[in-house]
Design the sequence.
């Protein structure tokens, strides 16, 4: 009797069970993400996690095979996950409607066989790159414009990462999106001319690279792209280049967080004090890994408003005082806490720590990396 | 040509611009990107990288041509960075 994957099994070296066991995180459920997810569903990838904070808009429908006109206004991640399940009920698909940097713990990335990024901004790529490097997860970056596309593969270790290739101009453009206090500026996101054709081409390559990654065995080298290589395609004129990306010895992103200890503490319930007690590090310091905006303080009328969100998630509108109306509020932030800190009795979740996050604990003797638990399964 | 200089062929990915130029080996790749986007009136709201087609590797923006191991006659391609995909 023919089974669903009969044609796959005809391919020499194909391992459908490997695909069924695989865990893949798809960051971005837009033009590229839709095509990637469709391919993952058709292939029978067993465990898929979709991450996107965005909502479906009318203009998305020209490049999003999983979305319909009636879906406008709904969560891209939720709808994409639902449609993948409809295409192939064998796939266990979960979703996170949130930010890949602040709402997805590093422990989630660590559990993945691979991460595929179909993102829209430099900043999101930098964040995904750092998360994957810290968690030791291989990741594939896809990008498109009207007549160009690129796919690059990055792995843990000292090879080139996405951030290695950043030019001063790229940093400048990235930094323009943030004020000196770290709050987001109101610059509109760039919109680019793209089509379903170029999105499906790049998604095809991304998922093919995933297949090569999953099928690379012990001692068997991966075919296709090696880590720190890029495939660059132009459609006008037709051309394709696969080449090496050089590592930048001055790049600050190469930081593998290991070994990782598992703590049976959930951010929703545990405080900084609980965590330090659990680890037997009463004098230790918990590094959040991001700048936490604790409050906005008005220099004009002295009004204070508690915020408790990562500063990068907050916009410049917060500088306007809700009491006196002047734009003179300044952010108060922190990056680490110890047991004596003012907010040490707040839950880690209240401090912006995501489920399954890996936090760094610094003591006199060492730096420990501790993975927390979470409220959902993935 | 002085040994401090190197002759390269620089072209864009869409092949609409191409030039043979002799430039100092001490020039940074980032400077080449900046100068060529300006001189060739390329779209300014894009990021660019430089790919050495002869060596089959991308050049780091922070490298000089000398550090990047660029030799006489090498063909460098200015490639727009494909940034989009989610929206």
Sequence:
């Amino acid at each position: 009797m023919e089974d669903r994957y009969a044609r796959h099994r005809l391919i020499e070296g194909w391992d459908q069970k490997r695909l069924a066991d695989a865990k893949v995180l798809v960051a971005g459920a837009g033009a590229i993400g839709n095509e990637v997810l469709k391919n993952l569903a058709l292939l029978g990838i067993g465990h898929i996690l979709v991450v996107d904070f965005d909502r479906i808009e009318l203009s998305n429908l020209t490049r999003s095979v999983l979305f319909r006109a009636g879906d406008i206004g709904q969560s891209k991640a939720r709808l994409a996950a639902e449609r993948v399940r409809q295409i192939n009920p064998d796939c266990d698909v979960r979703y996170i409607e949130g930010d890949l940097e602040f709402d997805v713990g590093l422990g989630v990335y660590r559990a993945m066989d691979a991460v595929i990024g179909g993102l829209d901004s430099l900043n999101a790529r930098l964040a995904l790159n750092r998360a994957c490097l810290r968690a030791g997860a291989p990741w594939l970056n896809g990008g498109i414009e009207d007549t160009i596309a690129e796919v690059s593969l990055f792995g843990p270790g000292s090879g080139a990462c996405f951030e290695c290739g950043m030019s001063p101009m790229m940093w400048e453009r990235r930094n323009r999106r943030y004020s000196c206090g770290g709050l987001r500026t109101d610059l509109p996101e760039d919109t680019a001319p793209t089509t379903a054709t170029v999105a499906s081409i790049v998604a095809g390559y991304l998922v093919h690279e995933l297949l090569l990654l999953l099928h690379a065995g012990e001692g068997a080298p991966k075919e296709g792209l090696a880590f720190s290589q890029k495939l660059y395609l132009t459609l006008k004129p037709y051309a394709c280049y696969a080449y090496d990306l050089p590592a930048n010895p001055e790049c600050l992103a190469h930081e593998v967080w290991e070994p990782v200890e598992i703590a049976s503490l959930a951010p929703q319930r545990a405080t900084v004090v609980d965590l330090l007690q659990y680890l037997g590090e009463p004098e230790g310091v918990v590094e959040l890994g991001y700048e936490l905006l604790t409050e906005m303080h008005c220099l004009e009328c002295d009004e204070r408003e508690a915020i408790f969100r990562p500063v990068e998630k907050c916009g410049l509108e917060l500088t306007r005082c809700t009491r006196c109306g002047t734009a003179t509020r300044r952010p108060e932030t922190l990056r680490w806490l110890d047991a004596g800190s003012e907010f040490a009795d707040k839950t880690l979740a209240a401090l912006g720590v995501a489920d399954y996050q890996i936090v760094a604990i610094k003591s006199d003797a060492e730096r420990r990396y501790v993975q927390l638990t979470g409220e959902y399964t993935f | 040509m002085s040994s401090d200089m190197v002759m390269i062929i620089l072209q864009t990915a869409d092949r609409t611009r191409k030039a043979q130029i002799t430039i100092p080996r001490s020039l940074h790749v980032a400077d080449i990107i900046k100068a060529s986007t300006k001189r060739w009136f390329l779209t300014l709201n894009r990021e660019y990288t430089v790919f050495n087609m002869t060596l089959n590797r991308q050049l780091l923006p922070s490298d000089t041509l000398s550090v990047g191991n660029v030799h006489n006659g090498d063909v460098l391609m200015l490639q727009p960075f494909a940034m989009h995909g989610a929206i």
User: Anything to note?
Assistant: The longest strand of chain B covers residues 5-12. The domain at 5-80 of chain B is CATH 3.10.20.90 (Ubiquitin-like (UB roll)).
